[in-house]
Here is the input.
Amino acid sequence: MKIEQLKGIGPKNQELLNKIGIFNVEDLLTYYPYKYLFINIININEANENDTVYVKGNIVTVPKVGYIRRNFNVLSFLVNIDNTIVNVRIFNRAFMKNNLVVGKSIVLVGKYNKLKNTFVASDIKFNIEGDKIEAKYHLINGLKESVLVKAIDLALKSNYKVEDLVPDNLNKEYKFIDKNKAINIIHQPNSYEEIKQAKLKLIYEELFNYTFKINALKIKNKRALGIKRDINRDEIDEFLSTIPFKLTEDQLNAINEILEDLATPERMNRLILGDVGSGKTIVAVIAILANYLSGYESAFMAPTEILAKQHYDSLINYFAGTDIKIALLTGHLTKKEKEKIYEDLNEGKINLVIGTHALINDNVKFKKLGLVIIDEQHLFGVKQRNALQEKGQIGPDVLYLSATPIPRSYALCLYGDLDLSMIKTKPKMRKEIITIVKKENEIKDVLFKMLEEIKAGHQVFIVSPLIEDSEESNLNSVLKLKEKMDIAFNYKIKIEIIHGKMKQKEKDEIMNDFLKGEIKILISTTVIEVGIDIPNATMMVIFNAERFGLAALHQLRGRVGRNDLQSYCYLISNMDNERLKVMEESTDGFYISEKDFEQRGQGDLFGVKQSGDIIFKIANIRTDSKILLQASKDSEKYLKNKEYENSKHYKNVLAEIDFLD
Ligand code: ADP
Ligand code: MG
Here is the structure.
């Protein structure tokens, strides 16, 4: 049933709904709220001065508009609340004036100062009878909340039924509520208890469906035919003896697992999970070498030009004593340069090509592609990853590298279709990054330390959660920090900014200048999270650190300490924050990710959120960890016992991934 069929939603609003992925009634019903407002109307005499409360009253006087300064106005009027005439003020709502007619009943949200008999409202609500739980939805520009709420209400009343994807026996076993009842509750709940029940059902369903697919993919991958090779272990060992360091045990294990994969006729689909700096590159190097020795070409794809270039430089170094021919293919090359590479690849003259998604270009044709390596795999979508693999005549082996140290059990659920090698130990030689949490009024200490590092010839990263100042004016934006720093250092130090809204070319240029050491302080949003290597950077300063998940903080901190110099990370936050103490305590990504899961704070799951593949409507793989693991177990069993035979939906899922023979 299309949304056009719902009476009362005009074409403009339909278009807006389309923009958030809503095309039919089912989309509407499964556009779940992200939070709830518990509207509990109290008597104004019970209002505490510091609490935000809801009160109900009737408007007594016509609101007056006052302009405090440009873009800043205030409405003042009197309201009869529980038989007290109260002064009400609300900022920046001049547009509401015409709606606030004398005699009208309204609900005010805000704080009441009894002494001054003044209620400062943050919002005014109409049409509220009594206590109520209000669902809150993510909106986009132009789409009014009231429109979305009305559309969902119409969808609920249409009596359209959404299919329940939880198998009957599991519904019984877990005493889940009915799917459509859950959907009703999720949008229009009556109690907190109800919401909990409904969420549990819908989250489990989503994760069951997801892990079913992952588990099926895993079995399918195991069946896929690949290249069987003879591995020349002696030659590999000889190469390893030329490496200037001794491999860690985890590196050796990962290498052995890969070599075994390459020797079997099944395709390799392996994920190397290791923290920043754990030494994943050498593992990839050995895979490429083994692939080369057995007569095949390798392709190595990185998410950005800078990363591709860095891999290129380091692999040229590693392979200096071999005959392996290496090319770098990125969007930066001229047409002629690209065409030369296409030609050489086609003729098999290049043994290893490193590049960005430029590698996916249709003109890229290999002679004998045997191995595909994808760095920071979560930054690529499934389509991009597959596009590269499909360039092989026989399915090439695939190796994914990821610097997102999540616990093994999660990794298995999320990436269950891949085999997993973990590199938990880090090479010993490096100095631990010293991490210190500071309040904003202690910023002088931090500035002093920055100056010290810059004077020593080193460089500094500063990170802010925002690009520009927003309504949340207590956050330090990138632009504001640039101003502050310029003033603090008297414009004598070269400071630049970088953020996600800049063009890729601009970003690359600034990163290059930073890499060359021309820029001393780089202020950015989290765009630098990806693994760029600036060995000379020894200090990371993160403002409003409480805004970031531990995972993100750890990734950011990993940008420094990439050399033998002592490095520092300063976390600036005015909040007393237990989470940030974990950062002071440890630099072990796996430990931090465990803590992150335990604490269930705000934040993202080590970049998993960025992945286009794993977007859940209601589940949160971090906070819903237990449900994820249980659903994975259940769906595995469901698949193994072929219980899906009775389900059209799951048979379709399997058909889609080409699982059924
Ligand atoms: P990442 O896992 O972040 O990709 P890299 O592979 O870039 O890490 O390795 C980081 C640095 O550590 C490199 O300079 C590399 O030469 C060095 N390295 C890797 N393995 C070892 C080891 N076993 N012992 C000492 N240094 C190592
Ligand atoms: Mg790396």
Q: What stands out?
A: The first helix runs from residue 11 to 19. The chain has a mean pLDDT of 88. The chain has 21 helices and 21 strands.
